[in-house]
Amino acid sequence: MGRSTQDRGVLVIVSSPSGAGKTTLTRRLLAEHGASSQAAAGLPGGLEFSVSYTTRPIRPGEVDGRDYHFVTTDRFEEMVRAGEFAEHAFVFQNRYGTAQAPVEAALARGHDVSFDVDWQGGAALSARWPVDALKIFILPPDLTTLESRLKSRATDAPDVVARRLGKAREELEHYSEYQHLIVNDEVERAYGVLRAIYLTRRYGTVDRPELGDIGSSLSTLAAVVEANHRSGAEAHARRLVGQG
After folding, report:
1. DSSP symbol at 115
2. How far apart are CA 10 and CA 45, in angstroms?
3. What domains are defined for the chain?
4. What pTM was estimated for this model as a whole?
5. Side-chain-side CA neighbours of residue 60 (13 Å)
6. pLDDT averaged per 10 residues in sequence order, the chain, 244 residues
7. Per-residue H/E/C for 161-227
């Protein structure tokens, strides 16, 4: 069924091991289907990005308040004690957290919120908002490609890359906690699946011409989602973690 402007929004939770492509894919989805773009098209909802808080140092090219809210450890601890986080965790010796109040406000006004988080964050968010959560896990084509992507970033020291590779298998073991799996073997194809999953959750699987081009393609998008379910992504995930 479709959703109206009075409906609550959707929590779009996208997770993956570092280097598998979740940030690239979610940023593209936000660029195409952000709240301002949807409003301009006369469509309800639209995505907002949840900007997490972190204690890690800012990287070249990042902007405070856009990529993360960069805070001191003391400030982060204050927020924890005040109960301001919906979820928070240690990741590679740094702290990350999602503030609860702005997320709840967005959902209440019918806006969708996009999260680019690890499996720990995904688990905490879906536990806090179980009805609203749409959980998607991005899989790399293989671990060799994952290693190559991490090294090509040139933003992390070699020891950090090594730790992230070591963590990748552990993160992959949580694929079964997600409603949808997408193998990111080709960005255009993977993005097409992500877009179809999001739009059919937001607007339904039956064509709704009154919603314009997107509404007229909902049944086609639903077929993309169904084809992805039959694509062998789950078997691929089992192979990645050595289960099959």
Report:
1. E
2. 9
3. 11-50+111-240 (3.40.50.300)
4. 0.86
5. 4
6. 62 90 92 87 84 94 93 97 93 90 92 90 94 96 83 69 80 95 96 98 95 95 98 94 69
7. HHHHHHHHHHHHCCHHHCCEEEECCCHHHHHHHHHHHHHHHHHCCCCCHHHHHHHHCHHHHHHHHHH
